[in-house]
Write a structure and sequence with these properties.
The structure is a homodimer of 367-residue chains. With 367 residues, chain A is an alpha+beta fold. Chain A folds into 2 domains: 295 residues, Ribosomal Protein S8, Chain: A, domain 1; 39 residues, 2-Layer Sandwich (Wheat Germ Agglutinin (Isolectin 2), domain 1). Chain A contains 11 helices and 12 strands. A 7-stranded mixed beta sheet of chain A has the order 2-3-4-11-5-6-7, sandwiched between helices. Chain A has a 3-stranded antiparallel beta sheet with strand order 9-8-10. A two-stranded antiparallel sheet of chain A has the order 1-12. In chain A, helix 1 packs antiparallel against helix 2, helix 2 packs across helix 4 and helix 4 runs parallel beside helix 5. The longest helix of chain A has 19 residues. The interface between A and B is large, with 90 and 90 residues.
Chain lengths: 367, 367
Amino acid sequence: MSGGMNFEKVEIDEKNYIRVPANKLKSFVKDIFVNLGVDEKGANITADVLVDADLKGIESHGVQRLKRYVDGLKNGVVNPRPNIKVESSLPSALLVDGDFGLGQIAGHFSMNLAIERAKKYGSCVVLVKNSNHFGIAGYYAEMAAKNDMIGIAMTNARPLVAPTGSVEKLLGTNPIAFAAPYRENMCFLLDMATSIVTSGKMEVYRRKGKNLPAEWAINSEGEFVYTPEEALRGALLPLGGLYEITGGHKGYGLAMMVEILSGILSGANFAWKVGNTQGPEKANVGHFFIAINPEVFMPLEEFKKRMEELIERIKKSKKHPKFKKIWFHGERSQLTRETRLRIGVPIYKKVYEEIKAIGRELGLNGL
Amino acid sequence: MSGGMNFEKVEIDEKNYIRVPANKLKSFVKDIFVNLGVDEKGANITADVLVDADLKGIESHGVQRLKRYVDGLKNGVVNPRPNIKVESSLPSALLVDGDFGLGQIAGHFSMNLAIERAKKYGSCVVLVKNSNHFGIAGYYAEMAAKNDMIGIAMTNARPLVAPTGSVEKLLGTNPIAFAAPYRENMCFLLDMATSIVTSGKMEVYRRKGKNLPAEWAINSEGEFVYTPEEALRGALLPLGGLYEITGGHKGYGLAMMVEILSGILSGANFAWKVGNTQGPEKANVGHFFIAINPEVFMPLEEFKKRMEELIERIKKSKKHPKFKKIWFHGERSQLTRETRLRIGVPIYKKVYEEIKAIGRELGLNGL
């Protein structure tokens, strides 16, 4: 698939999208943040995380979200120049104060810290409090894999998910990302919400005017709802669904694990208390990162060889008749990125106009 | 619920069960292991893990499994006197060689090591290779919580689960257990297979002569099967089910994460290579443990207070009309344990006869 062929995990209806070279898009987004008072380095990191989501085909977490960050910076709930610092630490567990800056800046700082410490001590946990939405969790897990480490990133998020047995939105879609080094330019990369789907997916269905194809959400009476509008008003269901018989309590449990590790333990806001990045209150999101050094256990090359054997055996296994291909996690998103780095990042026209307008207002015409 | 009232998470049909005092059961199981050459301490740990599963209402992982361990010890694939040692280490990441002993012995040793190191360094990862089935993953996570630590335990297992898009059994039910300190004698304790259900559940349905109530398994052609016999011959489905639309790729991804952390990284057998504890080949199971010291981040009492607030709010939220009560993870199993410590552990009559026979053969009449 690699080396020239075009692959995109999401089918793009080109007439509704505009393709922009990734570098141009990134530089435009960076300039916006710089213009709003963010320092060069922080703006660069944040732009990279946002554009990386679009490159990977995770449109819901890409530049479509730019407006929210911009609003947060304008409203003053997001601090453009956070004084990010380690508040307390032992050699392999540290608490970082994000000082209400962009979550991407705190996330990047903290995963780098975890990687550095894991090189020395074997593994390291870094927690962040006083942060904001950090974009795709997979970005930070992948940072570890690019440094030949195993990485995990989690974050809590504003409440959208009903615990098993409840109809109230009390937990976030609380993602778990896990990455392990594999091949050159290709890692194993799981990046999943602990709900069946994210609210971003709901927004994509709304935009396309389509009903939901499965039991993803309930209303305040506990009935399944099938329009994106009702789903966005109601509560999302945890991975496994409404009932215990299909494992819904497991998705609920994973969301709790993420909440405890990133929200409760860090001292950030937790569960129903987590705010929005665009305000009106400070979001105070919490994140969790860990890096593990594989070379404590075996030479890196041996680890990668074992990864290769695992993945290849699965990919070559007997296919289910309803599936076209067997994939490993992160394969499609990384192939999509490879393609889009060559042929440009597709931006939905309305989003393109929106971010162009944000730039224009700041005197930036780079798009 | 606590303090005298009887609660059991599974309804017990008393005429098919015999209640045995927990201590009597544990001492009988311990004597069997000692008789098979296991040292006093290791036998005690293993008996405790097995009986704890029955106490918690996880019958599939309780003394019902005793025969498999006994067979493994008799066949010589399980080493009764393992020389468990740390093979390589940095301060917060260690590799333990389980020397093909009982998984419970290696697991107990390794989680203790993780706890000890986490006290000093803040967090610690311990991996185990050359091990066997270690019982319930939750036992080890709970060890951490009892020591005022946050704990995670994972293990790979013999292949029973089909990756998304495949009809082949290539991954284990690869459990994730997560525990956090909460109240006295009650922790938050998630203990979940990354498949919708375990094979143990299938065995319970078979015994009761009941069909499966949901799409838990497929046959080698990829068709859903609804009898436990077909399910046990076929492949279990990952949490989220067969299709991506219900999140099946997420359960597959979590199973891969567990496989990579406990199987690939430890140097143990992985995925389809993992053997059975009763032989004929050495199982060479791999485990993953981590302990995190909450006091790096905040005083323990503050952490527990925040846990209390999270859990109480969820438990008191508006109930879904199809549910009787909202639970947190580990609540039912710990209440069941409290009850059974008072009124005895229910053992299914056939299982009771089987383990009695195992004892009799070794000259033990303690049951």
